[in-house]
Every structure is written in structure tokens, then in C-alpha cells.
Amino acid sequence: MPVLSASDSTLVIIDFQARLMPAIHEGAALVANAQRLVAVARLLGVPVLMTEQNPAGLGGTVPELAGAGPVVTKMSFDACTEGAFLETLAGDGQIVLCGCEAHVCVGQTALTLLAHRRRVWLVRDATGSRRPESKDAALDRLARHGAEIVTSEMVIFEWLRSADHPRFREALKLVK
Asked: What phi and psi values does residue 122 have, to the nearest 5 degrees?
């Protein structure tokens, strides 16, 4: 897979929801990394798409990420079953994916995107599960099926490409 390009990427945030996050291993760190991704996406004009799984049961998106982008609500674990989700991701752009849970909603969504020959970069430090072994198994599986496993800093610096980028200093403040 090529290096990420801010002009060709969409940041997809899966199910960072209020009632789910307290049960997610290292949930606060995952939310903080997703916040950084959103902030840099805004700086660089990268579109953001979010999902909420059964919001009546799991609550809305955590306040730290609320309003980052349009939200597709779903009952199916695989966001690709929702027409609005696929319509927003139409084309062949790069998909930078993060969220919860790695082995359920993120995993099923990523596998379907990969099956449709979409390019998926899964952000390891902004993706979680209740149990670390579930996350590890999901990341291994997704990598075997073609997802690139990256970190939030890898994404940010690939989007920037150079210290000469006009927004570099602003983005760097968000990383430190």
C-alpha cells in the first residue's frame, strides 16, 4: 500500500460510545488518540465519518469526539450494511479506520471493506476491545487480509508528508 495522502483519505471512527468506553481496555488513551486524529484531519481537510452502534443501548458518541463528523447509526455490527455509510465512502479513497470493538464492529467493517477491494489503514492505538487478546487477534486477522496496521502518529506524519507543510507546526503541537 502507498503512503497515506490527506487529499485521498477519509477518517472513519467506529462506535466510540459513552456506555461502551468505560469497558474498553485503555479506553481513555484510545479516545485521546482518536481526538488527535480528528484535530489533524480538521487542519488538513480530511473528511471524518462516524458510526454509533445501537445508540439507544450504548449511548451517543463520547463528548470528546462528538460532532467530529456525520454519524451513521446502525444495529448491524458491520457498518457496510448501512447504505449511508457506503454512500459516504463511495470511490476508491484511502480509509483510515479506528474505533471499538476491534474484534466486532471494527473488524467486520474492515473485512467487508477489504472484500470490496478498499484500502484500509487500521489505527492500532485508536482501536480497542474490552480484552487485549481480542484486539490482538483482530489486528492479526485484519493484517492477514490486507489491512495496514498503523499508529496515529504514522497517519498524522504521512498526511503531512514534510516539515515544510504549512500546517506542520499546528499538527506537531497536537502530537506532543
From this structure: -100, 125
- In this prediction, residue 101 has a pLDDT band, given cuts at 50, 70 and 90, of very high
The distance of Cα 107 from the centroid of its chain, to the nearest Å, equals: 11
The span from the CA of 98 to the CA of 123, in Å, is 5
Distance CA 147, CA 138 (A): 11
| 12 φ, ψ (degrees, to nearest 5) | -115, 125
For 74-123, the DSSP string reads ESSSSGGGSHHHHHHT-SS-EEEEEEE-IIIIIHHHHHHHHHTT--EEEE
Give 84's contacts (C-beta < 8 A, 6+ positions apart).
Answer: 72
Beta bridge partner(s), residue 97? 12, 122
Task: Categorize the per-residue pLDDT at 2 as very low, low, confident or very high, splitting at 50, 70 and 90.
Answer: confident
pLDDT exceeds 90 at position 102: yes
pTM of the model: 0.96
